[in-house]
Amino acid sequence: MPLISKDLFKKPNNALEGGVDAQPPAAEERTVTCSECKAVLPLDVFKAQAHVCPRCGALHAMSARERILWLVDADSFQEMDAALLPQDRLGFPAYAGKLRKVQQESGEPEGVVTGTGMLDGMPCALFSMNPEFIMGSMGAVVGEKITRLFEYAAAQRLPVIGYIVSGGARIQEGMFSLMQMAKTSGAVLRHSQAGQLYIAVLTHPTTGGVVASFAMEADIILAEPKALIGFAGPRVIEQTMRQKLPEGFQRAEFIMEKGFVDRIVPRDAQRRELSQLLRAHRKEGLA
Ligand SMILES: [Zn+2]
Questions:
Q1: CA-based nearest residue to 252, from 274, 230, 277, 220
Q2: Of all helices (H) and strands (E), which one includes residue 166?
Q3: Coil, strand or helix at 191
Q4: How high is the pLDDT of residue 233?
Q5: pLDDT of 201 strictly over 50
Q6: 226 CA distance to ligand 1 centroid (A)?
Q7: C-alpha 38 – ligand 1 centre gap (Å)
């Protein structure tokens, strides 16, 4: 079962989907339905609230680009390596077609967006993973873009903020995918050795290979409420351990209690919190 359902919101057809001849959508069509409380919300209200349901508080998925544009100062984001495209090096069955389909549907060439921007007037490097792109899985290009970002940030003496969501390594890229764990880890280490700050924000779900690499290697690890965070899924662990797992296992709150997450930050407080953290570390001369 996918961790985030594609049917989270029943989006109506819009003018873009329908082509140039499509009728402009009626006002009542520009709504989304909260999958938790079934509230019907105007799309612009929903987007303005960073995809948080105003009625029940449920956090719904945001695309990589939405996250970045919501976080940084207006018009400050400069994307890097947008032309790096994934390749089907192994000739994995159905992968090439899947890539084309997901590129078309998401409007993104790969599962991560990287670049630089300003947060409250402070420069930073940013990466943001895309849940709409094969569940934010880490293929060779995802690993390469993140590695290049950390290398650039180390050279330019910039802090890195990373928004993470991932189902893990991308199985269709086999060993090319798995080696990204070591490669990104090396880049994170070199950035750290250059005395620069790295803050990760773990969102639902953060699992698999990214947890075994850059997701858990940040100086400060923040998480969104109730985000699922773990290497293997609970069912696999239960079957292997032959034990019933405690309630809330692998949720952000449980992970924080065990010491793997520093703070849980609601979405509407993240901009302020990240800005404060950047500012605090500038004062200490680390950024
Ligand atoms: Zn709701």
A1: 230
A2: strand 160-166
A3: helix
A4: 82
A5: yes
A6: 15
A7: 6
Q: What is the pTM of this model?
A: 0.87
Q: How much distance in Å is there from the Cα of 247 to the middle of ligand 1?
A: 23
Q: Give the pLDDT mean for 164-190.
A: 96
Parallel/antiparallel/unpaired status of strands 160-166 and 122-129: parallel
Q: Do residues 136 and 130 touch, judged by C-beta distance below 8 A?
A: yes
Signed CA dihedral, 150, 153, 159, 160: sign only: negative
Averaged pLDDT for residues 166-186: 96
In angstroms, the first-to-last Cα distance of the chain is 42
Report the C-alpha gap between 147 and 165 in whole angstroms: 17
Calpha distance 257→31 (Å, rounded): 37
Is 162 within 8 Å of 128 (Cβ atoms)? yes
- Give the domains, in start order, of the chain with CATH numbers: 1-60 (no CATH), 61-283 (3.90.226.10)
Q: How far is the CA of 232 from the centre of ligand 1 (A)?
A: 29
3-state secondary structure of 113: strand
From the CA of 49, how far away is ligand 1's center (Å)? 12
Ligand 1 mean position to 275 CA, how many Å?
Answer: 28
High-pLDDT (> 90) share of the chain, %: 80
How much of the chain exceeds pLDDT 70, in percent?
88
b/e string for 129-158 if b means 16 or more Cβ within 10 A?
bbbbbbbbbbbbbbbbbbbbbbbbbbeeeb
Map residue 41 onto helix, strand or coil.
Answer: strand
Maximum C-alpha span of the chain: 58
Q: Is 287 helix (H, G, I), strand (E, B) or coil?
A: coil
DSSP conformational letter for 164:
E
